[in-house]
Write a structure and sequence with these properties.
It is a single chain. By secondary structure, the protein is an alpha/beta fold. It has a domain of 219 residues: NAD(P)-binding Rossmann-like Domain (Rossmann fold, 3-Layer(aba) Sandwich). 42% of the residues lie in helices and 16% in strands. The strands form 4 sheets. A 6-stranded parallel beta sheet has the order 2-1-3-4-5-10, sandwiched between helices. It has a 3-stranded mixed beta sheet with strand order 11-8-13. It has a two-stranded parallel sheet with strand order 6-9. Helix 5 links the parallel strand 4 and strand 5. Helix 2 runs parallel beside helix 4. It starts with 10 loop residues before the first strand and ends with a helix. The structure holds guanosine-5'-diphosphate. The site of guanosine-5'-diphosphate has 20 residues, from helix 6 and strand 7.
Amino acid sequence: MSHEVAWGDTKVYVAGHNGLVGSAIVRALEAAGAGEIIGWSSRELDLRDRSATFDAITEAKPDIIIDAAAKVGGIMANSTFPVEFLRDNSMIQTNVMDAAHSNDIDRLLFLGSSCIYPRHATQPIRESSLMTGPLEPTNQAYAMAKISGIYYIEAHREQYGRHWISAMPTNLYGPRDNFDLQSSHVLPAFIRRFHEAKVSGAPTVTVWGTGAPRREFLHVDDLANACLMLLSNYDSGQTINVGCGEDLPIKELAESVADVVGFTGTIEWDSSKPDGMPRKLLDTSRINALGWKPQISLRDGLTSTYAWYLENVA
Ligand code: GDP
């Protein structure tokens, strides 16, 4: 069953609208001519605060909620702060969904991440491999919260007939990413490390792990378009993967980023740092069957993200 959304008549609340994902969704909603787009910064509204979250959503009464609010981080942040990653994410998603239900908001999209799948899932990873094996320890806390969010979506569909859905994007990148070296993901970390080495004339850059793990990277604007498409064309309790269908070794990503940035020195690998999951490539047949595919190549995405970094961060 599909529910074609008439965006022009729709008031959408984007939770996490200042983040990497939320800001891309706002751009896509603006391009689609959404009637009204609302969002609160974390300073205006702390989504861990249940009564404040209820008050805000009750007053705003959106037609659709897109939940892109989460505490996110790369391999180091995730494995160093499991308490915050599990607690904050559980609180945020439960408060948003409970407030949505209590206001009878029938359309909600919850976003997770490909780290919900078992460490040794068959690659490319199908949606059906959820809960079939142990998780990757370096991001287990975040994954546990997201898995319970997916189940909470399903539970509301079953128990209350809500038309809520969830989608699981692969590793994302783009403008407004986090470029902090301790807490970022690999792609923005590479942009920053290589840029700073180029500027300072450093001959070598040291990065983490062995470079052997394989990852898939999707530009966040492609994800945002997928989210709008899913709200019109997907209505199932089973989560749906959003990826580009291709992965590459971290070593090759390092070479591509160095090339885009113009760093010509040596890249050294610190194998005392964790590699994380050996491979994380999503099977995207389900979303491809709905007619969606990504438009932005990794090379173009890297070039535009580096330009954004130069203008806004460097
Ligand atoms: P993951 O996909 O959850 O493992 O998250 P990340 O994006 O943080 O890491 C992906 C891979 O990149 C891991 O194998 C890391 O060890 C590797 N990596 C290499 N250098 C860096 C770095 O400077 N920062 C981060 N976050 N990861 C790095």
